[in-house]
Write a structure and sequence with these properties.
This protein is mostly helical and about 220 residues long. The protein folds into two domains: about 60 residues, Arc Repressor Mutant, subunit A (Orthogonal Bundle), CATH 1.10.10; about 140 residues, Tetracycline Repressor, domain 2 (Orthogonal Bundle). The chain has ten helices and no strands. Helix 4 runs antiparallel to helix 5, helix 5 packs across helix 10 and helix 7 crosses helix 8. The longest helix has 27 residues.
């Protein structure tokens, strides 16, 4: 299927009126996430986003020059925050690779349970961005993957992990991507208010990750 580029310049006009008391840029981002999630990026217009967040077109123009720029902003911002949370979780977990892996997965899964709309847009609509903007986001995704690869490599070196494959760097990338894929897709089916809380989901996924890489039990 060919990719149809949609670039709609925003025209300055009027003064911003925000319905929920958020800063205008945050109102725009929130409205864009929900509009893109519900209807898809190609269908949603700048006017749709303007109406959804209660802002004038001039207020939109003050922050974003086009719909493309807005899409890049919301995906890049949520991706950067995910990278920050994962790195912080690992940094606070101590020097045991098992604790680091569990902390990484917990942070990743909690984020995807809580921000399901953002995850949906970031993973489904990225293909509408141009190559330069996609490369920016993929750099962050590789950084997250490499944090996980580093944890796995350290665990193997210390005799704590025995994941599938030879343990070489390329094999570890495959294992890391498999773990990331299963954690990412929780956003597609998890719904709050069910039998399992976000915390319980994070615990289940972290335990699955440890078993997947053959983690040796911690001695207490």
């Amino acid at each position: 299927m060919s990719k149809r580029k949609t670039v709609r310049p925003l025209v300055a006009a009027g003064t911003a009126v925000e319905r929920e008391g958020r800063p205008p840029v945050e109102a725009i981002r929130a409205a864009a996430f929900h509009q893109f999630a519900e209807r898809g990026y190609p269908v949603v217009t700048v006017r749709d986003i303007m109406k959804a967040c209660g802002l004038t077109q001039g207020a939109l123009y003050n922050h974003f020059r086009s719909k493309d720029e807005l899409l890049h902003d919301i995906i890049a911002s949520t991706q950067a925050e995910l990278e920050r949370l994962c790195q912080r979780a690992v940094g606070e977990a101590g020097d045991d690779p098992r604790a680091q892996l569990a902390a990484f997965v917990r942070a990743y899964v909690m984020r995807h349970c809580r921000l399901r709309v953002e995850a949906l847009v970031a993973n489904r609509e990225i293909g509408w961005l141009d190559a330069k903007r996609v490369a920016d986001i993929r750099r962050s995704r590789r950084a997250i993957r490499d944090v996980l690869v580093g944890i796995l490599a350290q665990g193997i070196e210390r005799g704590l992990f025995s994941p599938p494959g030879s343990g070489g760097e390329e094999d570890l990338k495959v294992v890391a991507m498999a773990l990331l894929d299963q954690c990412t897709h929780v956003s597609k089916w998890y719904a709050p208010g069910g039998r399992l809380s976000e915390e319980q989901m994070a615990t289940i996924y972290s335990e699955m990750a440890l078993r997947s890489v053959g983690a040796k039990p911690q001695v207490t």
